[in-house]
């Protein structure tokens, strides 16, 4: 008939988190009560695909509690953002410049351009096991477009690279 808020108290019992809610005392025989619970649970990133809540309904007049379980799917969400920059932003080769085959000097292979990529987690959840694949066009037909010199990372990331990295050992 009417709606009223329950008074619920969280506590720890035998290493588990328990929420105890008083539904009313005394209760009339044959009374039917519908209870809606809203729970906010954090830190579920490593919980797997679902979390199970075990419910018990105890009455002082009944020796054994009624039990039920509710399984709720866990859906973690995180928004990733990739930012990139080239230093310098624009590069123009002089018309008189030519590739020097077999040279070990950097300037004979072109103008140095550094590409920096940053991968950011905008949340709300944490992420793990992320793979970022970058395809860099280093050939144009059979001509060298970009001579890939080195590849580095920061922040404890693992990195694997194309075998054509610095083939002339410049």
Automatic annotation (TrEMBL):
Q: Where is it localised?
A: Membrane
> In what residue span(s) does the Integrin alpha third immunoglobulin-like domain sit?
81-169
Can you provide one Gene Ontology molecular function annotated for this UniProt record?
integrin binding
Q: Which UniProt keywords apply?
A: Glycoprotein, Integrin, Membrane
Gene3D superfamilies noted in UniProt: ntegrin, alpha v. Chain A, domain 3 (2.60.40.1510), ntegrin, alpha v. Chain A, domain 4 (2.60.40.1530)
Q: Which Pfam families match?
A: Integrin_A_Ig_2, Integrin_A_Ig_3
What biological process terms from GO does the record include? Answer: angiogenesis; cell adhesion mediated by integrin; cell-cell adhesion; cell-matrix adhesion; integrin-mediated signaling pathway
Recorded topology in the membrane: Single-pass type I membrane protein
Q: Name all Integrin alpha second immunoglobulin-like domain ranges.
A: 3-74
Query: Do you know which InterPro entries this protein is assigned to?
Result: Integrin_alpha_Ig-like_2, Integrin_alpha_Ig-like_3, Integrin_dom_sf
Q: What is the name of this protein? A: ITA2B protein
């Amino acid at each position: 008939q009417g709606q009223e808020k329950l008074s619920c108290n969280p506590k720890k019992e035998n290493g588990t988190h328990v929420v105890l809610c008083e539904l009313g005392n005394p209760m009339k025989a044959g009374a039917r009560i519908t209870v809606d619970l809203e729970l906010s649970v954090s830190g579920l990133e490593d919980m797997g695909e679902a979390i199970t809540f075990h419910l018990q309904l105890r009455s002082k007049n009944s020796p054994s509690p009624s039990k039920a379980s509710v399984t709720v799917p866990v859906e973690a969400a995180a928004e990733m953002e990739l930012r990139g920059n080239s230093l310098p932003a624009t590069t123009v080769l002089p018309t008189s410049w030519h590739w020097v085959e077999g040279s070990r000097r950097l300037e004979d292979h072109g103008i140095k351009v550094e590409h920096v990529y940053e991968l950011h987690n905008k949340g709300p959840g944490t992420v793990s096991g992320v793979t970022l694949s970058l395809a860099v066009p280093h050939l144009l037909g059979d001509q060298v477009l970009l001579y890939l010199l080195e590849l580095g990372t920061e922040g404890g990331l693992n990195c694997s690279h194309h075998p054509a990295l610095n083939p002339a050992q410049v």
